Structure formats: C-alpha cells, structure tokens
Amino acid sequence: MNAETEFETRCGFVALIGAPNAGKSTLINQLVGAKVSIVSRKVQTTRSLVRGIAIEGKAQIIFVDTPGIFAPKRRLDRAMVSSAWGGAGDADAVALLVDARKGVDEEVEAILARLGQVGAAKILVLNKIDTVEPPRLLELAAKLNAELPFAETFMISALRGHGVLKLKQQLAALMPPGPWLYPEDQISDAPLRSLAAEITREKIFERLHDELPYQSTVETELWKDMPDGSARVEQTIYVMREGHKKIVIGEGGRTIKAIGTAARKEIMAAAEQTVHLFLFVKVRENWPDDPERYREMGLEFPKN
Ligand SMILES: Nc1nc2c(ncn2[C@@H]2O[C@H](COP(=O)(O)OP(=O)(O)OP(=O)(O)O)[C@@H](O)[C@H]2O)c(=O)[nH]1
C-alpha cells in the first residue's frame, strides 16, 4: 500500500515568504478566514511565527507566517531573518509573495537568491493586483520566472480576496498525504497569550503610527482564569526610552486607556470570555539584544 492510498487526507506546511509589507498577514487571514496575524501599514510588524491553519477539502494546510525578510542590521533583525528561512527549509511548499505594485527591488532579489537553495516546491504569488494594470503583471511574472523557475504563478488581491481560493486549492493539492495534525476547529496554534500580546501591539501601532518607532514590544505576563469564568490578563508594554513611555501613556493616561479598551474588546472576542486587562509600561533600553526576549518570541538568538 503506498502513501497515496493509505491516507485519504493531506496535511503539510506552507512557508509564506516575502518582503515587509508584501501582504503576508493579510493573505494568511484571508486563507484561514479568521484574524490570526496582525496586519498593519507599518513595515515589519510580524515578530514571531504565527501559524494559521486552513482546511481545503480533505487537506489541512498549516501556514507559517514568516517575519519579513530584509537586510538585517541589528541582532534582533538577524534573528528574525534566520528564523524565517528556517521555516522555509522545513516546509512542503514555499510561496513567495511579491507586491506587484513595487515589483522587483533589492529585497525581492535577495530573497530570490536564497530561495534558489530551498528544496521545497516554489510558488510565485503576485499580490495587490488591484493596484496595477494586467500588462505589467504579465511582465513581472515573466521576469521573476526567468530568474527562478516557479512551479506555478498566481495573481491575487489578498485585500479583496481575488484569486485566493484558487491559490488555496492549489496549495492543498501540493500537501503530502497524511493525517491532520490539528483538530478541525483550530485556526491557530499561537497560544492565547501571545495572540493577546499581538492584539495590544496592533492597538499601539494604530494609535501611535508615527510617534513611536517599532522598537516596542508587548508581553502577556499573566493570564489567570478566575472562578467566575473571566480572565485577569496583565501585559507589559516595553519601550526603549523614557520619552516613549510618556507617549504610550499619553496625557492623563488617555492613550493607554484607549489602547487598553480597544485591545480588551478584541482579546475577549479571541478568548471567548470576559477579560480584565491590566497594562503596564516599562522602559527596557536594551531589549533588542536580550536573548531571553528572542526565546519568548520563538526566535533563535543569532550567533554572530
Ligand atoms: N491594495 C492592496 N493592498 C494590500 C493587499 N494586500 C495587502 N495590502 C496592504 O499592504 C499592507 C501590508 O500588509 P501586511 O499583510 O501587513 O503585510 P506583511 O507582509 O504581513 O508585513 P510584515 O508583517 O511587515 O512583514 C497593508 O496596508 C495591507 O492592507 C492587496 O491585495 N491590495
């Protein structure tokens, strides 16, 4: 009996690779049909590997949402990049997402060079087709395929959902036969704690777009289920400077209150229980170079 007949189901991993802002989080949310990965206009928001799990027919597709791959400078950035490539190497398929409006730039070139060495099936996905004319799309597809032969090319709008189902069906067909690794109703294996931290981080970004650099992080320090069915959740927002702390707190605590209210609503919806959220702001100047933080984020501490 061969593997094809032994299992009726399929199950595998798809690594989503792309430059920052290519639309990876948006696509994963579309594919999974639920909010599992934060989406932001700010570059480089994805800090940890968040998996979304999609079901298509008899296939379970586990998406690895890789941190944006870009030229790393600081240690934290390098850790993110090596973690992303590690994910690609283990996957059954790699989907390269390219912002069609931006086209091929240095970042995409760098990704192509490394992608050539990855053994998994490679799929090209041109995203944001709602923003460009068809001739440019065809030109871009030809150019990229000339640089690296892709098994298939898709053209989608992750934002509008165009072409997403076809992509999902094709990815499902690429998954190896095997039993499902997750129960059917599970959409993400990101623990609730880290999902809650991502939600709060998103709320900070929404409010403090330009005032706060992305060097801030949120940690869920406590998630305690109470006897009445509610949860007490304590989170610390770490910033790098005293001045940033003032910005996050805002005048008379107004900003942090707004962040907390918005985050609490969304965390409650994700947890399906009443949540009492307590936010703290702390200055931790050197957090991007602290190995402990890497492990918490599921990243490897870079050796060099
Ligand atoms: N017009 C248009 N915008 C899109 C599309 N897909 C994503 N976007 C926008 O592109 C921006 C970046 O999307 P994200 O999903 O956060 O990108 P990402 O690749 O996950 O970004 P990082 O986490 O920084 O690596 C957001 O403003 C999205 O709304 C699309 O199909 N069309």
From TrEMBL:
Its main location: cytoplasm. Residues 18-25 are annotated as: G1. GTP binds at residues 18-25, 65-69, 127-130. Residues 65-68 are annotated as: G3. Residues 10-177 form the Era-type G domain. It is found in: Cytoplasm; Cell membrane. CDD domains: Era, KH-II_Era. Residues 156-158 are annotated as: G5. Residues 208-285 form the KH type-2 domain. The keyword Metal-binding does not apply. InterPro entries: G_ERA_dom (IPR030388), GTP-bd (IPR006073), GTPase_Era-like (IPR005662), KH_dom-like_a/b (IPR015946), KH_dom_type_2 (IPR004044), KH_sf_prok-type (IPR009019), P-loop_NTPase (IPR027417), Small_GTP-bd (IPR005225). Residues 44-48 are annotated as: G2. It is a peripheral membrane protein. Keywords: Cell membrane, Cytoplasm, GTP-binding, Membrane, Nucleotide-binding, Ribosome biogenesis, RNA-binding, rRNA-binding. Residues 127-130 are annotated as: G4. It holds the Pfam family KH_2. An essential GTPase that binds both GDP and GTP, with rapid nucleotide exchange. Plays a role in 16S rRNA processing and 30S ribosomal subunit biogenesis and possibly also in cell cycle regulation and energy metabolism. PANTHER family: GTPASE ERA (PTHR42698), GTPASE ERA, MITOCHONDRIAL (PTHR42698:SF1). Monomer. Belongs to the TRAFAC class TrmE-Era-EngA-EngB-Septin-like GTPase superfamily. Era GTPase family. This is GTPase Era. It comes from Methylocapsa polymorpha. The gene is era.
